[in-house]
Amino acid sequence: MDEKDEELGAFDPNIPEEGPSAPPPGWLDDIHGYQGHIGADDNPLYPPPPAYNPQPEQDRNTLVPNVQVPTVSEDVAREALVKFAESKWKYSAKPARNLTFKDLKPVTVYRYRLETYTEARSSAWQFEPYSGQPVDGPQYGVSPPPWDIPMSLPQRFTDMIVKARVPHSSFIKSCHTCHGCGRTRCIACHGRGQKRCTFCHGHGRSRNKRCSSCSGRGRKRCISCHGHGYKTCKVCNGRQNLMHFIELTVTWKNNRDDFIPDRQPDFPDEKFQKVTGDPFFVDESVLVYPIQGFPDQEICDVSRKLIGEHMNRFSSTSRILQQRQTIEMVPLTHARYSYNGKDFDFYVFGMENKVHTAKYPSACTIL
Fold first, then answer.
1. Model confidence pTM above 0.90
2. Residue 223: exposure state from Cβ atoms within 10 A (0-12, 13-18, ≥19)
3. What are phi and psi of 295, to 5 degrees?
């Protein structure tokens, strides 16, 4: 520290420099059943107990009923194309109204969906300023294991995250940032309450005149701490003590995989993601079983594959609460038509009768 800094005044040695915002390693005691936590960023997933791990029965399969392929009439196809053209500023609805249909061909499209609804539990140390609130500590009993803490289940297949304090995990400790002082030395002025004037560089004069910025004193009051040389500890809010506790995070998530066989090379499969189908088959249970006997063997194969993948992916770290598999018939009709002597085509798809077309005729086409 040079002489110029000393001229700014002394600092109070009893006010500590600001410490870490998170508790340092070894600052917190282990709680039985929650060992291994390092700090607030440490958030281990707890595997569910064996009783929560359902196991699929061997050689079980699910039969699916047959279904009729939906058809679209010329009136419905025309109305869908008119609506599509009207939604595009560069298109006119005139060709859609006056076209001549040549062929309407329904295409069989199945969408298979597997949903696995899971519950995962993790925890991390948290803290809050202690201002006399009740402390639910180990003196009231042993903290229950993560999966023994009762939680109200949300509606099935609904994503939700809930946080709760682990019972009997709380205790009081002096603030690790201010070491129980409630205040920390101001970093901006190094605890002196004043800073050297930046306009005159601490000389008090600028261009042979008294500095107008600092009135010739060469120093100015620190704006950051209002001249006190210290600031209220931002971690404990000046309370000096913190209450530490373990916070349990419960995550309910609907994990979903969709599959549509790629059988229509001229139609982009991603379009199906924006529409609904007719769910003619819905199978729901704690664990569902692979589909067999369905006319589309690829759906059967994907059902078996995805069910196995979901079991491997989620059962080790999550509690599987429910599964649901669905087969939808997604309407898809390939329409071919002529307008002004030229041939065009488009697709009508989904229960919403959306339209996809690679080319649309201009209203003013000249022969």
1. no
2. exposed
3. -55, -35
